[in-house]
Design brief:
By secondary structure, the protein is mainly alpha-helical. 57% of the residues lie in helices and 7% in strands. Helix 2 (35-63) packs across helix 6, helix 3 (67-78) crosses helix 6 and helix 4 (86-93) crosses helix 5.
Length: 180
């Protein structure tokens, strides 16, 4: 989907700062985006895309570890005992099971992850973080955090960070969004 596909016709765009009542929002949920809404939406998309691209490039350059692989290692590093069901990893990262299988295959070849039969369900498999995977995660984490801070977090004031965290909570995209 193109970023421009959400562009509204100029005549339908109210001036920046134009008031919107809750009633008008409820009455016409498919109305065109105004300038502020469009700026918020496109800013979110372009910032996310740019940041992921930068983080991926830096992780690959420093550790030969794509962002998708780092996310799997991060998920396992944060999991109790360093292991999770494959389907749970796929769900938490919002990727297909086949996409996760490809990533885990690569991590397994590198010795960062092992697959083990799930103890609670013989049909399922757990991905288990190895010692080498823990070391790779820790190295990748330094690169990830350095560039995440430089490219995004350090550009915001503490007040802006607090406001943004509150916005994500209000919108339903906070750290607990995966608890659903």
């Amino acid at each position: 989907m193109s970023l421009k596909s959400h562009e509204a016709r100029p005549a339908a765009i109210p001036e920046v700062g134009a008031a919107h009542s809750e009633t008008s929002r409820e009455a016409s949920p498919s109305r065109p985006l105004n300038r502020t809404e469009r700026a918020v939406w496109l800013g979110l998309l372009s910032t996310h895309m740019r940041l992921l691209r930068t983080l991926d490039q830096e992780l690959v350059a420093a550790e030969r570890l794509p962002m998708s692989s780092f996310e799997v290692l991060l998920t396992l590093a944060e999991a109790p005992g360093g292991h999770l069901r494959m389907k749970d990893i796929a769900s938490s990262l919002l990727i297909s099971r086949s996409g996760l299988t490809r990533i885990v295959d690569d991590l397994e070849r590198q010795g960062f992850v092992e697959r083990r039969k799930c103890s609670s369900d013989a049909r399922g498999f757990d991905a288990v973080l190895t010692d080498a995977g823990t070391k790779a995660y820790r190295r990748g984490r330094k690169v990830h955090l350095t560039h995440l801070r430089r490219e995004f977090l350090d550009k915001l004031t503490p007040e802006q960070l607090t406001a943004m965290a509150e916005i994500w909570e209000t919108a339903g995209f906070d750290e607990h969004a995966n608890d659903c």
